[in-house]
């Protein structure tokens, strides 16, 4: 007989497997009653008829029914930490990462070797926070956006969840349009851009909304196919790559620091969802193993694909043909141009490779779709009544409609917007890890308190520090839409030098440690 858990875990069960490691079976046993706990008060009511039917359909379809509820030990499986390597490899071995690497020579006017060294060292630094966050999934069984409650408190944590929800929907739009642009170029503009966006978006929504198991299955193999395609591009493009010399002086320092900030920001944007993909692993998985597999997936994928992007961007140096290709179709134009000069057969083969690569963005969009459903539930306990699948589907439809409507102009606007609002990540993650290292060493979290605001901190230290440090980061930023006054003072006009993450990190440490000590001393939580 299925075991029954207490409170929000009540009614969940697992099915024994006789043919190998047990598999996640996170389904509600009782389809007519839902339980939610807010504070110390339990509200129990009859689920609506449509809610019952939705849950029955979820169960019969094999989708994941659970949301942000803690995954107890009874539901854990023998899932390997290697799955985190494949997940982050697949999500980053794609055309968006390739285009990002091209920013070194293209936007920041760096040469080949300084771009290479920036991508090497700043990717090492940027991979650490998401890898640390990923270790909390198996140890605690809690989704990423539930964890801020243990430092920010009940209500400020909802603001963090909303910020991350905006990130997930926005990046899903940007990535889907980026993949569709390549598919559009492959079809010689005969395939309408709207149809290209729909094709990529619908594939991602179907996989992402079904849940944990389906996401991991897709990510387990996607990177292998895409990596072969990128190796082919590297092989054909090698003879065109140029050793652009690096710069020197104050301008070079400014460009290196600004590019480094962008690299770190691109990496740490994975941290607010990193724990979502290990909650079904057994609690006895060693955090070091989880960290290493996650770190390796993030670093290897981004570093090697980004240096290929930087190398592709060097082809425009003193080469009118590649310059014209880039001005016409961006990084996709460069990947297509390298196949020219070998005959029509090779050009056709190149289009085939590009067509495959256009679907590389599916791997990252399905992660956006899956985690945004969890983010919605973290905003309000009342939203737990509606299954995560419904929220993922709703968010997916919203992102797809917006992406189709703004397919010609929205991508650049959204990317600039997302780059600006990403400056909250350094203060947020610094607070999270200070809390973990100084006050919750050994993963000493009260797991019964995850939705009990009476047991959680008040956020009197975390939220004010978060606001002040985020404002400081904004004053130090250098982006298309905004160059902060501190950034201008440090570097040369008109772009200045982006030192946002360095100052935000230092300010957060200086302010949070004493204020959190006082909060715990006076309130005991």
UniProtKB/TrEMBL annotation:
Q: Where in the cell is it found?
A: Membrane
Question: One Gene Ontology cellular component annotation?
Answer: plasma membrane
Q: Which InterPro entries match?
A: Pur-cyt_permease (IPR001248), Pur-cyt_permease_Fcy2/21/22 (IPR026030)
Q: Does the keyword DNA-binding apply?
A: no
Q: Where is this region: Disordered?
A: 1-25
Q: What are the TM regions of this chain, as residue ranges?
A: 84-104, 110-132, 152-171, 191-212, 221-238, 258-279, 291-313, 352-373, 385-405, 417-439, 460-484, 499-518
Return any one Pfam family short name. Answer: Transp_cyt_pur
Keyword Metal-binding assigned to the entry: answer is no
Q: Which domain of life is it from?
A: Eukaryota
UniProt keyword annotations, A-Z? Membrane, Phosphoprotein, Transmembrane, Transmembrane helix, Transport
GO biological process assignments: nucleobase transport
GO molecular function terms here? Answer: transmembrane transporter activity
What membrane topology was assigned to this protein in its record? Multi-pass membrane protein
Q: What is its main location?
A: membrane
The Swiss-Prot or TrEMBL record describes its family as follows: Belongs to the purine-cytosine permease (2.A.39) family.
Q: What is this protein called?
A: Purine-cytosine permease
Q: Which organism is it from?
A: Coleophoma crateriformis
| Taxonomic lineage from the root | Eukaryota, Fungi, Dikarya, Ascomycota, Pezizomycotina
């Amino acid at each position: 007989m299925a075991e029954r858990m207490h409170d929000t875990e009540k009614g969940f069960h697992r099915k024994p497997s006789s043919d190998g490691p047990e598999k996640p079976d996170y389904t509600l046993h009782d389809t007519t009653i839902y339980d939610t706990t807010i504070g110390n008060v339990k509200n129990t009511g009859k689920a609506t008829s449509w809610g019952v039917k939705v849950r029955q359909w979820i169960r019969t379809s094999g989708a994941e029914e659970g949301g942000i509820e803690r995954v107890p030990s009874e539901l854990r499986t023998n899932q390997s930490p290697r799955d985190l390597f494949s997940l982050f490899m697949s999500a980053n071995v794609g055309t968006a990462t390739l285009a990002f690497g091209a920013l070194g020579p293209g936007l920041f006017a760096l040469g080949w070797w300084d771009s290479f060294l920036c991508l090497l060292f700043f990717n090492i630094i940027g991979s650490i926070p998401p890898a640390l966050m990923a270790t909390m999934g198996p140890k605690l069984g809690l989704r990423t956006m539930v964890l801020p409650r243990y430092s920010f408190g009940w209500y400020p944590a909802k603001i963090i969840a909303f910020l991350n929800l905006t990130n997930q929907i926005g990046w899903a739009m940007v990535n889907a349009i980026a993949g569709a642009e390549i598919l559009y170029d492959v079809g010689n503009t005969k395939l309408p851009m709207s149809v290209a966006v729909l094709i990529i978006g619908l594939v991602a929504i179907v996989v992402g909304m079904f849940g944990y198991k389906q996401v991991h299955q897709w990510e387990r193999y996607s990177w292998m196919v895409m990596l072969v395609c990128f190796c082919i591009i590297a092989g054909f493009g090698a003879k065109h790559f140029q050793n652009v010399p690096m710069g020197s002086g104050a301008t070079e320092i400014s460009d290196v620091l600004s590019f480094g900030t962008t690299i770190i920001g691109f990496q740490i944007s994975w941290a607010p969802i990193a724990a979502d993909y290990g909650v079904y692993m057994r609690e006895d998985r060693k955090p070091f193993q989880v960290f290493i597999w996650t770190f390796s997936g993030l670093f290897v994928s981004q570093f090697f694909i980004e240096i290929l992007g930087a190398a592709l961007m060097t082809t425009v140096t003193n080469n009118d043909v590649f310059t014209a290709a880039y001005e016409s179709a961006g990084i996709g134009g460069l990947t297509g141009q390298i196949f020219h000069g070998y005959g029509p057969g090779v050009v056709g083969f190149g289009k085939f490779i590009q067509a495959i690569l256009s679907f590389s963005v599916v791997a990252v969009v399905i992660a956006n779709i899956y985690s945004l459903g969890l983010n919605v539930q973290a905003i309000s306990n009342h939203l737990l009544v509606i299954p995560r699948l419904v929220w993922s589907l709703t968010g997916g439809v919203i992102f797809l409609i917006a992406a189709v409507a703004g397919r010609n102009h929205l991508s650049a606007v959204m990317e600039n917007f997302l780059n600006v609002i990403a400056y909250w990540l350094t203060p947020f993650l610094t607070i999270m890890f200070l809390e973990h290292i100084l006050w919750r060493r050994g993963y000493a979290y009260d797991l019964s308190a995850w939705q009990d605001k009476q047991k959680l901190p008040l956020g009197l230290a975390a939220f004010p520090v978060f606001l002040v440090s985020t404002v400081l980061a904004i004053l130090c930023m250098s982006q298309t839409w905004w160059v902060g006054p501190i950034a201008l003072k440090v570097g040369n006009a008109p772009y200045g030098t982006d030192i946002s993450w360095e100052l935000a990190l230092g300010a957060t440490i200086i302010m949070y440690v004493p204020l959190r000590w006082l909060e715990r001393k006076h309130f005991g939580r």
